[in-house]
Amino acid sequence: RDYITWVLVNAKPVFSDNELDKIIVNFVDITERKRAEEALKKRMTELEIFNDAAVGRELKIIEHRKEINELLKKLGKDEKYEIVE
């Protein structure tokens, strides 16, 4: 995709005696900015996937700790894990 060039175009009409005299046009190459935006968007998606996986893992660990505590309670032993919710 290196062949794509992003250009921002700004146009400003200039009037003389209430009539359009000319239009001043400014072109700005924003290709690097767009590439950076795409890279950031990709990285944000990766981080969201990682975060979802980490949160899911943490919730599973809490479930297992609760199960262990319940089994220990049935055996008449003290709970091993403090569960904060």
What does this structure look like?
With 85 residues, this protein is of the alpha+beta class. Helices cover 52% and strands 25% of the residues. It has one helix at 31-74; strands at 7-16, 19-29. It is rod-shaped. The two termini are 48 Å apart.
Short summary:
By secondary structure, the protein is an alpha+beta fold. The protein is 52% helix and 25% strand.
In sequence order, what are the helices and strands, one letter per element? EEH
Share in helix? 40-55%
For the record, give the distance between the C-alpha atoms at the N and C termini, rounded to a whole number. 48 Å
Computed over alpha carbons, the radius of gyration is 30 Å
- How would you characterize the largest beta sheet? 2 strands, antiparallel
Q: List the total number of helices.
A: 1
Q: What order do the strands of the largest sheet run in, or round the barrel if closed? A: 1-2
Estimated structural class: alpha+beta
Show unreliable segments: none
Q: Rough shape?
A: rod-shaped
| DSSP strand count | 2
What portion of residues belong to β-strands? 15-25%
Average predicted local confidence, pLDDT: 93
